[in-house]
Design brief:
- Helix content is about 15%, strand content about 40%.
- It has about 160 residues and is an alpha+beta fold.
- The strands form three sheets. Strands 1-2-3-8 form a four-stranded antiparallel sheet, with no helix packed on it.
- The longest helix is centred in the N-terminal third of the chain and has 22 residues, at about 15-35.
- About 20% of the residues are buried.
Length: about 160
């Protein structure tokens, strides 16, 4: 006999033990997601935009690439729009190590390894109390370099940012 799965499911009930396990699993997953998103700030400072605090949360070297994450938090009383990229100015986000500048890496189609622009710009509106994570990838400095400077057009320089390997 062919059984209609939808009709068959109507006759099954979920027991209380399964419900508790499902709720606990969902809660655990949400908690782990929140903890992963709430990275500790390595360095924090006011941005050049009123009400925005910029925090470097990652500066990690792996496989010849340096990954940098900067969290922007809105501490103002309302929404704030932040223009991150204008006219594809990705080279205004760079790191320094010693006397050398390292610019955002690009893929084989010459697209920057960073949030993609829409027609030459990247602009985000961060809600009151909200945050946005900017990320970018750079050629990694030599292994003996343990700290870098991080420069953006929206913040003062982040000096002596430690690299994790």
């Amino acid at each position: 006999a062919i059984v209609n799965q939808e009709d068959d499911m109507k006759h099954h009930t979920i027991g209380p033990t399964f419900r508790r396990a499902a709720l606990l699993g969902a809660f655990s997953g949400a908690l782990l997601s929140a903890l992963a998103f709430a990275q500790t700030a390595i360095q924090s400072q006011d941005a050049n935009i009123s009400g925005i605090v910029a925090e470097v949360t990652e500066c990690k070297r792996a496989d010849g690439v340096l990954s940098v994450r900067m969290r922007l938090r809105n501490t103002s009383g309302g929404d704030v729009t932040v223009d991150l990229i204008d006219k594809n100015n990705y080279d205004s986000y760079y790191i320094t190590a010693g006397s050398k500048k390292y610019f955002v890496l690009r893929d084989t189609e010459n697209k920057p390894l960073a949030p993609q622009s829409d027609g030459g710009g990247v602009s985000v509106t961060i809600a009151k109390g909200g945050q946005y994570v900017w990320w970018s990838k750079y050629p990694a400095p030599p292994n003996d370099v343990k700290k870098v400077g991080y420069y953006t057009p929206i913040t003062p320089p982040f000096d002596s940012v430690p690299i994790t390997d």
